[in-house]
Amino acid sequence: MSLILSVAIIVFIYVVIFQIAKASEYVSILKGEEASRQQNNKINGFLMVAFLVLGFIGIYVCNKAYYGKTQLAQGAASIQGEKVDQMLFVTLIITGIVFVITQVLLFWFAYKYQEDKNRKVFFFAHSTKLELIWTAIPAIALTVLVVFGLRNWFFFTGEPPKNANVIEVTGKQFGWIFRYPGKDGIFGKKYYKNIDPATNSVGIIWDDKYAQDDIQTEQTMYVVKGQPVKLIIGSRDVIHDVGLTHFRLKMDAVPGIPTTMWFTPIYTTKEMREKTGNPNFAYEISCDQMCGNGHYSMKGIIEVVEQEDYDMWMAKQKPQYYTAFPEKDPEATKTADAGVTPSVAAKADTTAKVTKAKM
Amino acid sequence: MSHEAALHEGHGHEEHGHHEHHDTFLTKYVFSQDHKMIAKQFLITGMVWAVLGGLMSVLFRLQLGYPDASFPWLESLLGKWAKGGQITPEAYYALVTTHGTVLVFFVLTAGLSGTFANFLIPLQVGARDMASPFMNMLSYWFFFTASVIMMSSLFVETGPFSGGWTAYPPLSALHDASPGSKTGMDLWIISMALFVVSSLLGGLNYIATILNMRTKGMSMTRLPLTIWALFFTAVLGVLSFPVLLSGMILLIFDRNFGTSFYLSDIYVNGVGALSNEGGSAILFQHLFWFLGHPEVYIILLPAMGMVSEIMSVNSRKPIFGYMAMLGSLFAIAILAFLVWAHHMFVTGLNPFLGSVFVLLTLLIAVPSAIKVFNWLTTLWRGNIRFTPGMLFAIGFVSLFISGGLTGIWLGNAALDIYLHDSYFVVAHFHIVMGVASMFGMFAGVYHWFPKMYGRYLNNTLGYVHFWITIAGAYMIFWPMHYQGLAGMPRRYFDFSIWESFKQFAELNRFISTVAMIVFATQILFLINFFYSIFKGRKVTVLNPWESNTLEWTTPISPGHGNWPGEIPEVYRWPYDYGKDGHDFIPQTTPVGADETGTH
Questions:
Q1: What is the distance in angstroms between the CA of the first residue and the CA of the last residue of chain B?
Q2: What structural domains and CATH numbers belong to chain B?
Q3: Which residues of A touch B575 (CB under 8 A)?
Q4: Is the pTM of this model over 0.90?
């Protein structure tokens, strides 16, 4: 019922506006071409300036309301991020100046030079000098931005420091899998046809001697404050993207083509909670490439901790090998004696499983 | 008799005004070969898609603005796509994808170029029709067929394609990666293939007509800037659309014939490991964006050309810097082909390659800046008439400034890492491409409606349309920059689980509400448009805007062949407004002995 009423009201409003418009057309015919044109020019000329003023007020109000929510105010959480924020401000200032000058001129000229039968137009068709000036100035401004930007670009995409921790990140529909190289510091080889979602979600080749101490977690990744970390990124199915808002970085996860990204976090999660005054603060990983209907639900968490906390956490982790083969786990045999049923994964064997895709 | 008939067949169109032409309803309104009718067909079809695409955006903004609300009427409208009165994620992604596809291609390419290139080129260069009227007719009917197929994809059981208008594989290549990647995707590809054919047929015609069929005295540098813009647009399209087609053909192969152009090392949930190895998903992105970037200039250039025209006429002053405007159109057209990988900065591409694209991308800002300054100087010391067309032209410049400047943020790769796939990008392209070009389209419709239909659009409705739309568009897209700066990702159905992004719930509500008001205002324009075709105030003068260009020298409603007698000869460029004390001097006026030369 209220739907029909709403539709009726909307239709009524359209009819009213239409009738007013029709009526004003008759009025302008009666007034004559020139007089009605003059009046239209006056009204719209005034609206041009009004729009300019209200527009800048709107920009100010919007900035006041939302700048604080952009996290720019609280500062970036990685050394790369600090450079990004610097660049954002420089770009804002340069483009901001151009924005103000050109918008003001546009709307001011529109107002000031509305038709006036007492004024002759100035037939001004070209000026090579002016064209050169306003080619050179933008070119110089852009060169500054390019130089600044490329220095940072090569720093971000360059080699990480030698002491970087390396973590492998795999995106899938719809979540994140993290793999650490374990005590030997080397990742075991993997092959996608070995993937078994229950026990071997990235397809590790268990025969590889480096594979058996690799540690795997889902959703949450641990890194050390002040320690550079290099991510080797891949995907199991479609393109995803490891989006790290607070660190001001992201990198696509592409099936079949590993990509890398490195950063050095500055604040622990705990420190950020104090800094922002938000006890629920978390370094979230957002998927930043459309990957299907669950794209918005692929949340990962990065816990930035002090070295001791990281070491403590790492000490508690069990290699993925023991999840795939519980009988190999020294701890499990103890608990098995205590009467805990072995996991289903014990039935998995080491031969690669290949499933033909449904065409 | 037959000898004369043979002569009639033999000589060209220039000699006489009309053929012994008997039109049936079908040949006049449906399978017309007259460029003016074809232009209107493109316009109306484009408007239908604009309404549908706009409605889709209202629907998905309903989800973004009111994620917890439930609307029972939604379920009656969308059935299983809105269970319990709330749009499902599947429906949301289908809406977002179709909105993008339809607006970029069907509205702003076919609807914009198709309409104005078809309508204006023969009229402004002084030709009776296009180089090949038959091919021209085909270009519309391929577009119509593509539209029907895209429409049909909305009604299949598994739903239309839902992987974003950019259609990246493997998401778009794997039937099992998403329901929207099943039949809906096949239909999307077929529709797009037919659309490419339509664009090519049109583009070839536009180029041939502009190069070969200009009237006597119409040298290339006496062409209105509108025609130059449409010319470069056609060249861009002819060179880049085939690459998109090739990318899509490879996609069809990967989808249905077991190839691995884009696929490697894939394990699909519930299906298992696929046998495809060796392909690169990034290959598609190169092929897609090789069209994708020129595409945005295909959308922008016609708007720029028309705005130059409309601003000059309504300032009663020449467009400032005709040669510089021409040079910048040329520079933009060339650079358009050299910047595509700025859409791919975070794909893991070679950083050196990335740096080259940074340089070229920021370079393209220079000719764009020149154009803005030239438009400003055109207004300076003019005598401005605020027709609705002029208002939309001024609005275009404002939006182009705003959206173009944020392009500088995004073109700098180190910044793009942060802003890529965020609402900052959404704000940027909507302002600079979506709204700006739409304003160019509106400006063109308001300005040339009298020529198309022999009647005026209602002025008051035009003013209301303009002021609400420009204010509304800024209120919708300006705050999105802040959401982007907060890292808020695009193409998200819901933000409630995200501690980092859920602070924008109130802003999302505001944006959605304004979006509905702006959409409602476009209905006002539609009412104006369709009412005025039949009942608008009749045009009684040949040249209502007192313009110099050739289209105003035809009868008020030009018939087939445009000029009943000889096609007029041209003696000057189109921008002699306010020269030597004359308000305007049409191109067809010979140069007097006392004149101070051309420009």
A1: 50
A2: 31-262+276-584 (1.20.210.10)
A3: 125
A4: yes
